[in-house]
Amino acid sequence: MYEQLDISIQDLERANHRLALEHSADKKHIKSLTATIETLELKCEELQGTIDDLNLQLNTYKRKALKSSDSITSRTVNRRKSNCEDEANCHNRPISPDSSTQGT
Q1: Where, if anywhere, are coiled coils annotated (predicted)?
Q2: 3-class secondary structure, 29
Q3: Residues 73, 91: contact at Cβ < 8 Å?
């Protein structure tokens, strides 16, 4: 009877030791995963900042391009108006790149 108890105690001690080793390994793995998560979160924040900066640059570029386009259109219209003697005929002519050099 005591011999059976000794065997059970030894089995339990071995199982306890194995569980302690697994627990230690799991703690190390959790610590490693936590560090990886923190690193990835920082990288995501950094990339989000880069995205925000690029969106600002893109919006600035679009505004400048729109201003430039509006300015070119305005200059072309003004040139056409100044080259036209008869306002009614000018509105029917298509705008061409060399319209500023043509006489009416």
Answers
A1: 2-64
A2: helix
A3: no
Tell whether 73 is covered by a domain: yes
pLDDT 10s digits, 54-66:
999 999 999 999 8
Find out whether 77 and 94 touch, Cβ atoms under 8 Å. no
Query: Domain limits at 31?
Result: 2-78
Quote the number of domains for the chain: 1
Residue 98 included in any domain: no
C-alpha 54/C-alpha 80 separation (Å) is: 39
Q: What is the distance between the alpha carbons of residues 67 and 87, in angstroms, rounded to a whole number?
A: 27
Give pTM, 2 decimals.
Answer: 0.55
* Largest Cα span, the chain: 124
